Amino acid sequence: MRFLISVIDTQTRSLHTPEEMKAIDDFNDKIEDAGQRLFACGIDSPDKAEVFDSRNGSEKSLPGPHHSSTEYFSGFWIITVDSLEIAQQLAAEGSKACNRKVELRPLLG
């Protein structure tokens, strides 16, 4: 089973403390060593986004995020695990490691 763990932040490019960075590195090492991490990365701030809409022959592009919010995704992990329970446990560990809220969602397909 594959899941997306999205890190939720409230500040553009908020800085992690050295302790948080070590905890994130340790968490990444743990899930990498267990073969559970498929991919992980940070995401730039919403002000760097651009939205494209090419439906029905339209060719629109708009600078900025799809929607405005005080919270946004600042990074993510894509994991592969044997059960929802393991994914939930890893989401809780990821939240603790980066000291941010996270959202867990199953990947389809």
Task: Explain this structure.
With 109 residues, the chain is an alpha+beta fold. The chain has a single domain, classed as Alpha-Beta Plaits, CATH 3.30.70. It is 28% helix and 34% strand. The chain is built from two helices and six strands, in the order E-H-E-E-E-E-H-E. Strands 2-5-1-6 form a four-stranded antiparallel β-sheet, with helices on one face. Helix 1 packs antiparallel against helix 2 (84-98). The protein is globular and about 45 Å long. The model has no long low-confidence stretch (mean pLDDT 93).
CATH class: Alpha Beta
Query: What sequence of helices (H) and strands (E) makes up the elements?
Result: EHEEEEHE
Q: State the CATH superfamily name.
A: Dimeric alpha+beta barrel
* First and last CA, distance: 10 Å
Summarize model confidence as the mean pLDDT: 93
Quote the CATH topology.
Alpha-Beta Plaits
Low-confidence stretches: none
Relative strand content: 25-35%
Query: Fraction of residues in helices?
Result: 25-40%
The largest sheet, given as strand count, sense and whether it forms a barrel, is: 4 strands, antiparallel
How many structural domains are formed by the residues? 1
Number of helices: 2
Give me the count of strands.
6
Record the strand order, biggest sheet. 2-5-1-6
At a glance:
By secondary structure, the chain is α+β, with helices and mostly antiparallel strands.
What are its keywords?
two-stranded antiparallel sheet; 109 residues; 2 helices; 4-stranded antiparallel beta sheet; globular; Alpha-Beta Plaits; alpha+beta; 6 strands; single chain
